[in-house]
Amino acid sequence: MRITLAQLSPLRVFRMFSSSPDATRERRPTDVLLLLLSLLLVSVPAVTSPGPLGVDLALQSLISEFDGVLGWFWRLCYALLLGWTLVLVLGPVVRFRHGRLRLLLDYALGAGLALALAVLLSVIGGGGAGTAVEALGSPDPPPVFPAVRLALCAAVIVTASPGITRPYRVVGRVVLVLGAVSAVALELAYASGVVAALAVALAAGSIVHLLLGSPGGQLTPEQVIAALHDLGVDTDAVIAAPRQVAGEQLVVAHRTDRPDVLVKVFGRDAWDAQLIGSTWTALTRRGEAPRLTMGRRERVGHEAMAALLAQRAGVPVLPVVAAGEDAGSDALLVVEAPARRLSEVLSEEGGEERLADAWDVLGRLHDAGIAHRRIDLDRLVVRHDGAVALSDFADARLHPAETDRMIDRVHLLVATSLVVGTDRAVAAAMDALGSEGVAETLPYLQLPVLTHAVRRAITDADLDLGELRESAAATSGADEVELVELRRVTSAGLLKGAVVLLLVYTLISLFAGIDVADVVQQLRDADYWLLLLALVVAPLAQVGTTFATRGAVPSSLPFVPVLMLQYGIQFIAVVLPATAARVAVEIRFFERFGIKSGAAVTMGMIDGISGFVVQVLLLLLIWFSGLPGVTTTVGSSSSSTSTDAASSSPSLLGLAVLFVLVWAVVTVAIPRRRRRALKAVSRSRQFLGEQAGLARTALGVLRRPRKVAQMLVGNLWAQVVQAVVLGICLAAFGGSASLSQLILVNTAVSLFAGLMPVPGGVGVAEAGLTYGLQAVGVPSAVAMSTAIGYRLVTFYLPPLWGSLAMRWLRKRAYV
User: Fold this and answer.
1) CA distance linking residue 742 with residue 745, whole number of Å
2) Separation between Cα atoms, residue 336 and residue 387, nearest integer Å
3) For residue 660, how far is the Cα from the chain centroid?
4) CATH top-level class of 346-476
5) 340-341 and 380-382: which strand pairing?
6) Where are the domains of the chain?
7) Which residues does residue 593 pair with via DSSP β-bridges, in sequence order?
8) How confident is the model at residue 740 (pLDDT cuts 50, 70, 90)?
9) What superfamily in CATH does domain 221-336 come from?
10) What is the number of other CB atoms lying within 10 angstroms of the CB of residue 261?
């Protein structure tokens, strides 16, 4: 029986809920990313809360210009936000017979978490819990931080998003944006308070989805049968396929008089997952581009065309039965179902021939000018006629680059290794590609190349890619393999960028009151002879670090090479954090003197830690000894600054604790992350056990008082010389401070900047020096000028002779 559009129920076209009431709920990586994004968004306004900031006042003034014309519009938008929230809450109540009441629990939990987070943010910002609660019950100004009502409404909208269809989802986002702008226009919150409210809502919704799971927007079996009828494919039963992909729905449809078909559904309510996944891959992998304009129809058309072109070129594929869009705007691709997975055949006796067939199929595909890019154990299949075939051409590329072909080879090599083992898989690759072909593939044999499904299979099977690469290199006779650089960014890189942005935002706010004209005038009037003296004295600090480094090594090292090493570290520190640069270069230096890697690592760590210990001891000595230290507070009177300190310190501490708690909860809640963390701990323990024997020799220096004294005195000398250089720079601009104050400022800033993931502490050190000098009573313009001059003679100019020192070390094979 053929179902037409006229026979369809309006609820099928304009349905509100994306999935059936009993649909499986899952915890998605997207929710983790959104939670981290929300924490980043909330941390920026929280540092300077409750405001207002200059940006807040500027936006408030701009919007108020249109208040006379659009005042009614803002009130309407704000009322619409509340009304749409009520619609979402009443939806499950109206459809309670269909088992939708469970959604009310999601909404209630999301709103409760949003309220709790908003109150916590208000307390951290100094507004108090009472202010947040009062704002919840009052729709009138003054502005509050964060916008509590907006946070609650947005939390319901965010929490409901996976459970409703895309039209309702789009309406909710539009209403949310208009409601956020109207909150600023009606003076219910400043822009920073609105951003904080949206971040709180996003965090609350993500936490709910991680705790309770969320539906994937998949069609019910009845809806799939109706959609197939729309495409002219009659079926009487469908079941979910064993393999599922985010953003897609795979089902097997049974046909009475013909072979079963495999149906891929690109639901209109699952497109967002494809967008996020595509964008993330494009951002993190070189050579990728996000499919921002490829909607459901385009994806189905692309996959069908690629499969048909491959079939016409003689490549065994699963024949396309139908492709198109149903009346509910869901796109479907229908192909003949495979008889078996290739992995099942390979694991049987006599599967060697099938292994060769798989490589032959890939070779034909590449000869046809097509790259698959998604090969894994699920996409290598055997048809009913016995031929080995490829399925799922969703990511196929026509006229591919050489990199795309290499990626296909790597996927096939890894997929077959998971089934038949490394030796048989490498042997089959050698038979198909030859030694030269395998050798040119090896630089791409790395994790960033592989899809998420393959990486997960590698983890489950405990396959070592390094061993596979070494085995293939040995078999093919390839030289040392240098991996191709494929990653654009990593999670650590993104975290570093977020830290930098947060620091920049905070420091700009702290120093907004400094008069730039005064700083320029100070730089013009500086005593350049004193700055030249500082430049001459600054290299003496490396003499102290030379003694400290020699003290970290049990054997005796020549003085001049170690001194050149210290100057070379100043060159490396321009692009790496200072502590990391020092340890990494020193380890390489120690190895050149015959010290084994485990002992070299320990010695490098001892040298770095000894400097850290000296810095901490100096801070404690000045703090508890009564020596001159911090004498004034930056930018305000003592009474006001005590309040500021009381409000800002808990803010930063609270945010840090919040980050750690959320990260711990996410790691424990998600099984895959929990397993990864346990494996990392296990690998670390194994590595430490292997290196323990070598490390004991290096740790022997701690039992030798002369070596310990050499490390401590050397680092103390370096800190004192740097403080003297800071004092000379301060005198060049007409300022003065006691030696203990200079040591306090320089040591605290060195310690802080060395821990920051910012290369060379650029920006962080200058700001820290400025703030520290202001804290010991130096005027703001003089403090900033001194910081610039000091960093010039101790960081920005030393790489000039540091490069000469590195060249000297390389020429003599010391590094």
Assistant:
1) 5
2) 13
3) 15
4) mainly alpha
5) antiparallel
6) 25-212, 221-336, 346-476, 504-647+705-811
7) none
8) confident
9) Phosphorylase Kinase; domain 1 (3.30.200.20)
10) 22
